[in-house]
Amino acid sequence: MNRRQFIKGSAAGLSASAMLGLSNSVNGMNASTLAQAKDLSPILSGPNNGVLGAPHLPAKAKRVIYLFQSGGPSQLETFDYKPTLAKRHGQQLPDEVRGGQVLTGMSAQQSSLPLAKSVFDFKQYGESGAWVSELLPHTSKIVDDLCIIRSMKTDAINHDPAITFLQTGFPIAGRPSIGAWSSYGLGSDNPNLPPFIVMVSANSGGQPLYARLWGNGFLPSIHQGVQFRGGKDPVLYLNNPPGVDSSNRKQMMEHFRRLQDLQYQQWQDEEIRSRMAQYDMAERMQASIPDATDLSDEPDWVFDMYGEDAKTPGTYAANCLLARRLAERNVKFIQLYHQGWDQHDWLPGGITKQCKNTDQASAALVTDLKQRGLLDDTLVIWGGEFGRTNYSQGKLTEQGYGRDHHPGCFSIWMAGGGIKPGVYGETDEFGYNIVKNEVHVHDFHATLFHLMGIEHEKLTYKYQGRRFRLTDVHGHVIKDILA
Amino acid sequence: MDLFQFVARFHVLVLHLPIGILMLAALLETHMVFGKSKRPYLLNVIWFWGAISATGACVLGWMLSQADGYAADAIFIHRSFGISVAVIGFVCWWLFKRAYAEDDVTQGQSRPHASQPQKNAKPKLLVSVLSGAQLFFLFATGHYGANMTHGETYLVEHAPNLVRAVAGFPPHKAARPPITSLDDVVVYDDLIAPMLEQRCASCHNDSKQKGKLNLANMEAIVKGGTSSNTLVIGDADASELYKRITLNPSHKEFMPAEGKPPLSDDQVAIIKWWINAGAPVNERLPSVAMEKSDKVFAMNVLGLSPEAFPAIPAITLEQANALENAGFVVKQIDRTNGYLDLDLSISRRPITAETRAALSAVSQNIAYVNLSYATLSAQDMALLSTFTGLKRLRLEHASVDANTVFELSTLENLRYLNVFGSSVDDSIFDVVSNMPALEQLYLTGTNVTEDNVNAFKTASQVNIYYVAYTSADAKSSAHGTE
């Protein structure tokens, strides 16, 4: 028994309600929420309403679908068109452009940093006249629904810290992920499904992903993302085992609850309650998951939109379709991961394959949400953890060139829920530094929360003596891209 | 260090002594002269020390007046009354002492006869006049002194209009009528003044003027502060009033200073528009040229934008519970108002009398409602039509058709209507053409005809989302009910 447990245990004599009042995690009335005295105190304070009870401001995005492209897609082959690179193809990256940028160990030893043009053609599309490469024929058709941000900036140059930074607001592991914060703050809009669901493409591989990217950090574990399996059965063991019927199950759960409750009386550990809540959720998911994940009721034209892949469970396309179905069912934060965007060499071949696997379904998701009226209050985000260098890693050849990690600029897009379509931000003619409207990862998080109705400075959790928040001590809402 | 002024500032302490002592003396003296009891000799002492303390206050007051910062005429009147207090104090002391001197002597010399009734008439007139005068001068001195420290309006700031009229002040400003449309807006009173009052007035008002700037009325704004270009009419970029609120917030000249809440982006935009438009005052908005974007800013500042929610109280816990028991997911739109986001599509519970009762109890609070997959009777649709604040209505795959959809035509705030996959037909165009606020209409998978969709698209501002899949296609995408 450690000191904390001792103190909790000896306080067990107090009434349960008093304990709840003291606890940071249960009703969550920590100082930051109490401080808003002018608020109409939300009448709804159940677990489905989150610690805030109601958003700080009306949410433009009731739900988020984050299509995470893991590995760092090259901005120079997708959205950031740089004719100068073609003119200077093969010349050295000027020192004054590099500006002392630290390189990774993979290209720092190179005697030469030759600028590399994209081998793919770019054209302008839509009313915004956005430049999009030939790799993304489907995305290019929907550019007027997208806000393409070409001026994203991160602090980290390697996969682990960069992806951890983007998903949790801090490059070192241990903070809650965006979806966990959203669950903690806003709760759930569907009591029968987890408010934070994660799907990793089965038809991709590359840099590893790990559960802490969708973890709860120091928040109660009930807020962690629930990962669907990339196969025929996204969630296993939904059916009762042979010989056990539903009434047996109910009885067992009843006794189990009483046992857990005894434990809670003794230890006063909130994690016991989280665990019980997860068991209850699992029971409800026995009915809600088959309803949500069974694609057999989707007509053919839907598969035409998302592509043939969508019929194969676990593919990116199938996951996009599943994401739409979860959005229809009000799952608040739906996070997809597609790996394999880490083209250090043989980039043209690699990125062609990546785009082929993702372009159609990403665009179809936006179009499908739009025609169903869901894009109006669903935010879709497409992007990776950093950009790629404008010089070739390794030998510069037509098909063999590659690009190293580059934190200084990268491109993402957002669509729907309160976002103003268009092209935002600008990099220099080398595609190396941001020259206009930088959007730092913290600003991206602040803006994302703003769209969800959360003032990012006001959603905090006290842990180890200080109040933490997703944006730490940073972050400005990028008002220019709000609709 | 200025020892002279250090001592002078004790005026503020010492002045309270004559107020207390001389007031006590005057009241006691009056009481004694009209009452039966005998005047104690002690009163002479009280008058004397009262007059001495008044003299001390006068001297210190004169010293204080040597420092800068007080208006000459304010000093003159306060000083005149103050000296009068001290003089009358001494006069009272001397005269009353004399008037009662015989008594004192007589009493002192003939103690054995002390029980004899007092024969001498008391100096009633003298005491009344002098004590009254003393009280008057005391209060007058105090009042004019207080005016110098608190400002002339301090006393009457919260006075009833009758009192203000007697004191020669204009009556309180009447509350502006609530604004419901841009056409009613008087530029300065309704649009500009409330912003300045909200964000600037705590430091720039009639009595406190940081940087010698007062933003409480138009004359003062035109006059400006330490810098003369507070308001350069027609040129926002040259006006300090606009420059200071658009600096980097960490700049030391940024306003509002000291980390007070800044003006919103909409408010800043409106200040810019106002200055560039020539700083109109009494004009109504329609008579001033305004870009469309400025109108949006003005709507936002005034809380008139279609996105804005007028304040409404929250529903009760019982009402929320009734909705949840009827199968709704119940959410409050945000923490500052009581609008609801209701969703029956998760539970897909059938709509019963209880559902209708729970809904009609909160009908004014409903902003968003999702009734996808619901079976809706004509009665249910009629109930929907009473949700006057409704902005978003989702009826995907719901049982709504030509016979019931007309009920919705009274929803004048409806911004978003989604009937994807339902059985509505072309009659919906008659319904939605009466909806003034409608922006988004989702018709894919319904029985509308493409020709009519296109005709309506050209005739109206509404964004219509319609893809001509066969309705069997769209219908089969309905996921099965529980």
Automatic annotation (TrEMBL), chain B:
MF (Gene Ontology): electron transfer activity; heme binding
Q: Where are the transmembrane segments?
A: 6-29, 41-64, 76-96, 125-146
Q: Does the keyword Acetylation apply?
A: no
Keyword check for Metal-binding: no
Pfam families, per the entry: PSCyt1
Protein keywords: Membrane, Transmembrane, Transmembrane helix
Residues of the Cytochrome C Planctomycete-type domain: 200-256
Kindly provide the name given to this protein in its UniProt entry. Cytochrome C Planctomycete-type domain-containing protein
Q: Which organism is it from?
A: Agaribacter marinus
